[in-house]
Amino acid sequence: MGSYETACRYFDQASRQVGLSRNMQDLLRTPEREVKVEVAIERDNGEIATYIGYRVQHDSSRGPMKGGLRFHPEVDADEVLALASLMTWKTALVNIPYGGAKGGISVNAGQLSPGELERVTRKFIDKIYDVIGPLKDIPAPDMGTNAQVMAWIMNQYEKYRGFNPACVTGKPLELHGADGREEATGRGVAMITRDALDHLKIDVAGVTVAIQGFGNVGSYTAHFLDEFGAKVVAVSDASGGIYSADGINIPKLIEYTKDTGAVKGFPETEAISNEELLTSNVTVLIPAALGGVLTSENARDIRAKCIIEAANNPTEPEADEIFEKNGVVVVPDILANAGGVTVSYFEWVQNRQHFSWEKSRVRSELDRIMNDSFELVWKIATDKKVSLRVAAYILGIGRVGRATVLGGI
Ligand SMILES: NC(=O)C1=CN([C@@H]2O[C@H](COP(=O)(O)OP(=O)(O)OC[C@H]3O[C@@H](n4cnc5c(N)ncnc54)[C@H](OP(=O)(O)O)[C@@H]3O)[C@@H](O)[C@H]2O)C=CC1
Ligand SMILES: O=C(O)CCC(=O)C(=O)O
Q1: For residue 54, is it within any domain?
Q2: Catalytic pick among 102, 123, 171, 231
Q3: Helices 339-353 and 181-199, interaxial angle, to 10°?
């Protein structure tokens, strides 16, 4: 099943609950604009390399469109469309004044030199600068991109449109970034994990956790859960995972990965595969890397009581049904990982006001939005006797649907 078909399965389930008409469903499912561009650069060795870049603008009924940029070899039009639609429901769920978009380039960023990465980024912006902008569509980091890439985006955009730091979020602190954006997605995931455990009457202190992916989201999730007293026993990256029944020393692992670029070989842990990580004997499983990793093939082997979707789209619908039957609580991506876009919104607000907030303010506003959103979704799920995913979509789709009707087409 393609990524967008998967995303639509979840959309369809919730729109039946909301009672959306067929015509309205068609309108909300259909992206406003899909852009596909050639991104050609000269590599350091003088050869020409050609990549394909995408930006999908899914819905703008609640405000400018917002969503990250992914640089990864598996990026394609279908995946970017699916991720853009998730952004529409996510921004509505946390009630920030945006629509949804997503972009990406099908490229292995790890195989490019810093100069090549910069040329790819600038060339992409040359091709899409006229469809993005602070009041149109605002990119941000996702897999394979970071604050440096956002700085190049801002600089390239400004060559066409003049000074306007609100054109992109997730920028470095020295270039109008928000203190607290880099950690925000992981902090939000950790807050939501604690909220979910509270509702399940499980103490976060000492709870066992496995996290797939140790990049921006995975490492900050581990950092904050470790601060809350959880025992992170397994983590992984693309090259494999590590396990320690006694709990991994997360601050030391973060230092270790800064030096080595990977989790493997970390002292006092045993090597495991990514598949073994997913099925390890833990209370909480947190996919924080690629989509589509929880499937009908492995769902019955998952031993966690609770899955917190830090990654976008990690669970295929068949696996979701198995989890529901088996009583595994799944906190969906559009709620669990909404901390990143929420602090992107704070960054955009600060840029537009030319006034920066203290990190303590960013954190407390983020924590409030994450906690309130979780409570609302939990209540809808309880009242309507639906899964947390359907409840989250009901909230998001309901808000987008009402805005669309009020605004007219
Ligand atoms: N950044 C953000 O603010 C947000 C991100 N997300 C989602 O979170 C997820 C992770 O994003 P982010 O942390 O930013 O990305 P990063 O690029 O910072 O990190 C990605 C991590 O995933 C690992 N990884 C890649 N491929 C695999 C694989 N096949 N198996 C296991 N691990 C793998 C990478 O390992 P290696 O380093 O070895 O390649 C790395 O540890 C994505 O789904 C993204 O859409 C959601 C909301 C916001
Ligand atoms: O920070 C943002 O604007 C977008 C983050 C993102 O891409 C996501 O939530 O999936």
Answers
A1: yes
A2: 102
A3: 140
Question: Ligand 2 mean position to 160 CA, how many Å?
Answer: 24
- Closest ligand to 342 CA? 2
> Known binder of ligand: residue 185?
yes
pTM above threshold 0.80: yes
102 has catalytic annotation: yes
75 lies in the same domain as 195: no
CB of 211 sitting under 6 A from ligand 1: no
CB 144 less than 6 A from any atom of ligand 1: yes
Q: Could you tell which of 183, 221, 237 is best to mutate to test the pocket of ligand 1, judged by most ligand atoms within 8 Å of the CB?
A: 237
Whether the ipTM is more than 0.90: the answer is: yes
What is 178-239 written as a DSSP string? PTTHHHHHHHHHHHHHHHHHHHTT--STT-EEEEE--SHHHHHHHHHHHHTT-EEEEEEETT
Q: Is 312 in the pocket of ligand 1 (CB under 6 A)?
A: yes
Domain that holds residue 123: 33-168
pLDDT (tens, 9 = 90+) of the chain, 409 residues, equals 788 988 899 999 999 998 999 999 999 999 999 999 999 999 999 999 999 999 999 999 999 999 999 999 999 999 999 999 999 999 999 999 999 999 999 999 999 999 999 999 999 999 999 999 999 999 999 999 999 999 999 999 999 999 999 999 999 999 999 999 999 999 999 999 999 999 999 999 999 999 999 999 999 999 999 999 999 999 999 999 999 999 999 999 999 999 999 999 999 999 999 999 999 999 999 999 999 999 999 999 999 999 999 999 999 999 999 999 999 999 999 999 999 999 999 999 999 999 999 999 999 999 999 999 999 999 999 999 999 999 999 999 999 999 999 999 8
Q: What is the CATH number of the domain that holds 187?
A: 3.40.50.720
The CATH number covering residue 145 comes to: 3.40.50.10860
Closest CA to 276 of 290, 293, 259, 261: 293
